[in-house]
Amino acid sequence: MDTENVEKEDLKSGNKKWSVKRVAIVAVFIALSAVGAMIKIPSPIGSIGLDSCPGYFVAVAFGGVEGALVIAIGHLLSAAVVGFPLTIPIHLGVAASMALWAFTIRFFSKKGHFGLWIGVVVATLLNTFATGLFFLPIGGWAMYITTVPSLIVASAVNTILAAVAFQAVKGSKLLSK
Description:
Elements: H1 3-13, H2 20-37, H3 53-61, H4 64-81, H5 88-109, H6 113-130, H7 136-169
C-alpha cells in the first residue's frame, strides 16, 4: 500500500496514532540528520550543515508532519553541536521555519516531478532569505548579508540531495509503509 493511501485510510478510520514503522522511519531519519549536523558548510554562525536533507526527503517521501519533525530536530541538533550560537529561542524559531519549508516542499512534490523541482527552488529560497531574517536581532543586516551565501549553498545542497534521493527510490518498496 502506498504512503498516500495509508494516510487516507488512517484519516477515514480516525487512526491518529503512529505505527511502530512510522516512528522507526522518523527515528532513523533523525539519526541521519544528526550525522548531517556534523557536516558543516562554512558560515559566520557555524550551525549551517547538512542536517535538513533527511527532513526534506522524509517530507517528500512519507509526509509533511514527519518531514517537519525530522527537519526541526535536525536543525536543533546542528545548532547544539556548536553551542546554539544564535541563542536557543532564535534556533527554535529557525527550526519552526524549517518545518514550514518541509511542508512547502511536500506541497509542491504532490504536483509531480516538475513540482518537486519547483519545491526545491522555493524551499531553498525561503530557507535562505526568510529564515535568514532570524539573524537580524543578533547581528543586524550585516550578519544577514554575510550569512546569505552560506545559507543558499547549504539550502540548495540539502534540498537537491533530498530530491535526487527521492527520485532514485520513488516507486520502490523502500517507500511503502
